[in-house]
């Protein structure tokens, strides 16, 4: 029996979508207003899901408190009220698109979750725009 547990979280962050190797005009054509040199922000919503067998001793797939602590340490503390381009080392040379952000988050959490469990991360950039990553 495999069961999925999920935990919701959120963080607020600013970013700018652009490539350093492109001209402003090229960045503007591809990324539009998201290329604003003064950045822009989002209220990101996050759902982290862990799937695995129920432990017969505890009745848990994973203790939800442990999952909450991992999310807080790896995502909320690292990203909340930050400028992703300037304050988060993972985005120094990586364009902080929603797609790239969700992969970075997944990788940060994956290293803290036992390999026997499947991991899925859903990141809402807006209530209508979201991305999902389950690993490779």
Could you walk me through the main structural features you see in this protein, from its secondary elements to its overall organization?
The protein has 136 residues and is an alpha+beta fold. It has a single domain (2-133), classed as Tetrahydropterin Synthase, Chain A, CATH 3.30.479. Helix content is 30%, strand content 30%. It has four helices and five strands; from the N terminus they run βαβαβααββ. It has helices at residues 24-31, 64-79, 84-87, 98-110; strands at 2-15, 40-53, 82-83, 118-124, 130-133. The protein has a five-stranded mixed beta sheet. It is elongated and about 60 Å long. The model has no long low-confidence stretch (mean pLDDT 97). Pathway: Purine metabolism; 7-cyano-7-deazaguanine biosynthesis. It comes from Flavobacterium seoulense.
Distance between the termini: 23 Å
Sheet with the most strands: spatial strand order = 3-1-2-4-5
Structural class: alpha+beta
Q: What's the main sheet like?
A: 5 strands, mixed
Range of helix content: 25-40%
Name the beta content range: 25-35%
Write down the secondary-structure element order. Answer: EHEHEHHEE
Determine the CATH superfamily: 6-pyruvoyl tetrahydropterin synthase/QueD
